Amino acid sequence: MPLPLIRLAIGPTNGTAHHGVLLDAQPLTACSSHSPDLAPIAENTAHSRCQSCARARLILTTLPHPGGEPDARPAVGTGPSATAHRPIPGHLLAYCGKPLEARRSSARRVCANCTRLSEALDRFRRRAGDLVLPEVEPCHGDDTLLWAPKGRANLVTGHRRNSVTGNAYCERQLAGPNPGAPNQCAPCRHHWEEAEVVRQTYTLPHMRTQAADWENRTLDVFDDRASSLRSGDAYTLSGCAEVHFVVAVADRGGESHTDLLVYLPGEERIADVRIRRDRLVTIQRPGAAPVPNRAIS
What we know:
Order of helices and strands: EEEEEEHEEHEEEEEHEEEEEE
Oligomer: single chain
Structural class: alpha+beta
Low-confidence stretches: 291-297
Radius of gyration: 22 Å
Shape: globular
Number of strands: 19
């Protein structure tokens, strides 16, 4: 019977959280860390994350890039003959956690840390067998999702998240999704409704026109990380058949994710998208207009 991939920790409220399974009632982690005291914990807790297990979860749950991926890439800032790193599927992030170049590596020397996690994950898969993986967050989900304020002082009232600032529309810092909140913050609702009127009245018709003319434009098409996206680009990525037309980008340095405002022609709507900075995407970018020839007088 397939085993569910769950979170495990020594304490119920703090410590380090791992991803793994209970095999014959014994904990087994993806990173090969072992303690008989590890026990299942809930999804939303204050535990710090085991970074190796977090990358292992990405490896298990992300589909490979549609255009194909090389077995090895160089780290950012190194040459193609430098140490080769194994890329996580669908990301420009190595098994060891280093950011990677989009190009292929020609090196024979392989990163020992990448190899270590790869071997640990292979052992985990052999012992755990078939896995029931957690549902992957949708690429562009429900924009009406409510969030909990930082500190979790009030979980009864949910807040609307402003993707431009990363905070609630009422300016409170947010801790995470709170879809079960029975009430909604009134200031958040008011400001969100104002923003939604602008999107429907101005942004949506403008982006609909731009998308309709897209195939007539000269486009540069290339693979890169999501953090390189700019307003006016379009992109695709693994696990989603939609073309995403980028309306605006809010890339706050130091964060693991980039917030985008995109137009989805298939769903005919403007949506907020939160995507990992290192996610591998295929970018379509309008090329520079040719400079007309001028007669020499």
